[in-house]
Amino acid sequence: MDEPLVIAGRTFRSRLLIGTGKFASAEVMKKAIEASGAEIVTVALRRVNLDDPRDTILSAIDPAKYLLLPNTSGARDANEAVRLARLARAAGCEPWIKLEVTPDPRYLLPDPVETLKAAEILIKDGFIVLPYIHADPILAKRLEDIGTATVMPLGSPIGSNRGIRTRDAIEIIIDGANVPVIVDAGLGAPSHAAEALEMGADGVLINTAIAVAGDPAAMAASFKKGVEAGREAYLAGLGRARKEAEASSPLTGFLR
Amino acid sequence: MSFYDEIRRTNWTEIEREIENRTAADVESALGAAALNFDHFLSLLCPAAEGYLEEMAQRAHLLTRQRFGRTISLFAPLYLSNFCTNRCAYCGFNSGNQIERLALTPQQALEEGEFIHRLGFRNILLLTGEAPKIASVDYLAGICDLLRPLFPSIGAEIYPMSVEEYRTLIAQGVDGLTVFQETYSEELYGRFHLGGKKRNYRWRLETPDRGGEAGFRRIGLGALLGLANWRVEGFYMGLHAMYLMRKYWKSQVFISFPRLRPAAGAFQPLHPVSDLNLVQLLTALRLFLPDTGFTLSTREPSELRDHLIPLGITSMSAGSKTDPGGYTHPQGTEAEAQFEIADDRTPETVADVIRQMGYEPVWKDWDEAFLK
User: Fold this and answer.
1) What is the pLDDT of residues B137-154, one digit of tens each?
2) Phi/psi at A148 (nearest 5 deg)?
3) CATH number of the domain bearing residue A188
4) Tally of domains within chain A
5) Nearest by CB to A22, which of B71, B251, B355?
6) Which domains does chain B show, CATH number per domain?
7) Phi and psi at residue B355, to the nearest 5°
8) Which ipTM did the prediction report?
9) Exposed, middle or buried by CB within 10 Å (0-12, 13-18, 19+), for B181?
10) Domain of A61?
11) Which residues on chain B are in Cβ contact (under 8 Å) with A24?
């Protein structure tokens, strides 16, 4: 029997998180989110008008069904990310924030120094912080130490669809984490999502692979299955086929 | 080190010869490469690559969709002043032209801004001719004060300034800078720019460097297509974009494609760029620069604009007026427009077409909270 995903005390049945960028229309996005079974939907604050109830993206996401997770996409440093987060809360969003600090517009790689700095400020400020990071195990521990709700290491650069190129480092992060590990970027196919869950990741966040697919809703449904298959495989024992499984002692067993 | 030092390490004539001599085999080898280097890029600009346009277009489409999604950003230009001290052979604002000159008062600029805001735009581009005594930094800063509450994103396509002046504008909420080199050929540049400060090729070429140093979020470049061999111009646009992305790595670089079109009584392009040429240029640049934004203005006719959307365009203007005061006083002002609008559809019509093509028109993609 699987346990649900718990982030900051809140329980989620789905381990698939969805991003809302790059869709052809709010209608297509809405159908994809429904098909994905996701319960957490992240939205770029720079794209939406928080004070406008007719905003096409926001009005397509039912707050009773989904946790709307605002993100700080576009922020280049800690100050900008903090300002955006506070703006979202002031506009009535829940105090959850997906922290993204990406000073480089080409690969959108996260800045570890500014991310840590912003996380510190936001946590003191009462936010529940889900930081997007490179697959850096020490940074993951540092963030966990100051109280982030998750860590969200990248599989490969955002939007690249290249899959989990940071596998070894993500394994170390999962091995040491006491908060949920959500693999956040670069997953391009349901098999990549399955791979992340098989490794023991607690969830994945998908955007580009669904948004730019020929049929986004069908792709969302297949990611849902990929996540479920990966999780089931992990629970079935794949995840334990690692170092703990090598505990037999053929050479020294006679000493017992 | 600036881009001027970089460009002096190359030779226009040699690049031209190199491009013209590339063969179909070179194009195929470029298309087979996993990641394009400058040599591959050069091949995609050659005449033989015309035989591979459909393949280039397919790839450009997929790359753009992957990187930028199914979205097209929309913006509107706001012409503040057509006073100009330059004499550029091809431009309607040429100081030698006997035209009505007008600089909007801050109040008039606000009225134009409010009009553009009502059309739905949240991203505006401010334009002036080169007349620093009239459209001074203080003048622009004052107008930005009025426009900031309406527009989270403000771009500037104005005369080249110093790093300090740019910092003043950035503090006033201007996040984007656009400056076209017109032509990267230093020799030809001198022939078209006959008077005014713009005569100084190096000062203009180094403008994006100064913008990058000042910290603009977005830096736009381009060549006025038609002044010189577009294949060579395209190579230098790619070189310039790559240089800027590496040096000012926090700035988003984008490229515009203003094209001189043959017109009665007007300046005739010496090197006309056909629609086919434009598609080759656009797709070759996209294959070489997957992360660079591409902008298309209303200089191009509606039908062609629609066809270019899937080939790599990421942002467009719509419903543009290129004469100061043109939005609120369509017939009221006598001020001369900079160029003829070839796509005069309303922003809402353009947005509808974008939707029909399977893209979401994006009006807002920035928030003032980033800066303040």
Assistant:
1) 999 999 999 999 999 899
2) -70, 155
3) 3.20.20.70
4) 1
5) B71
6) 3-370 (3.20.20.70)
7) -65, -45
8) 0.75
9) buried
10) 5-240
11) 70-71, 358-360
